[in-house]
């Protein structure tokens, strides 16, 4: 079979399967980044809190999820979660093994890892905001909600965006580890295609090329977002 047929969209081609796997990788990474944004924001708030207990919790979270290998975390969530689900099922009279959905495990595991990095990004962004602006806003009687909406959030987004771009790239690469759960993302599909056709070099090269395409497109998106936020911020300063 020729390379064109092998990678084509015919009955024996893997083109459509690889594109669906590419889409699954993107969706998984977006879901993980969203999960990480929630946990990252909460942990950043904890690390910036005046409460020593919350600061200890925040430090423990980032140390744990940045210190343990990503693959081990995925194994713990997938096999540990399946064991818990099976035990709960047996308690209620169900028989057999109950597995957790690979996509949910992937989004949660990578999201929690992502959250440990996003927390540091958000914390640094908040600390980068000028204290003088915050004090001036409070001096004119601005409420806390208005302070966050008009002063803090716009600047935190501006300062955090480059770091979030790096976290996105990290999560995109970590999504390949979800192949161990059997989810048909890009890495798993490349493995299956290579094993089915014995064209290992071809499909691993194609998989790598598709990851590079995602990385390049992602860099463009974040570069444009940074430029747009920067122009918007300068326009706001000019109006004031």
Overview of the structural elements:
By secondary structure, the protein is an all-alpha fold. It has one domain: MetI-like fold (Orthogonal Bundle). Helices cover 81% and strands 0% of the residues. It is built from nine helices and no strands. α2 packs antiparallel against α3 and α7 packs antiparallel against α9. The N and C termini lie far apart (66 Å). The mean pLDDT is 89. Pfam families: BPD_transp_1 (PF00528). Belongs to the binding-protein-dependent transport system permease family. HisMQ subfamily.
Radius of gyration: 22 Å
Largest sheet: none
How many strands?
Answer: 0
The portion of residues assigned to helices is over 70%
The span between the termini is: 66 Å
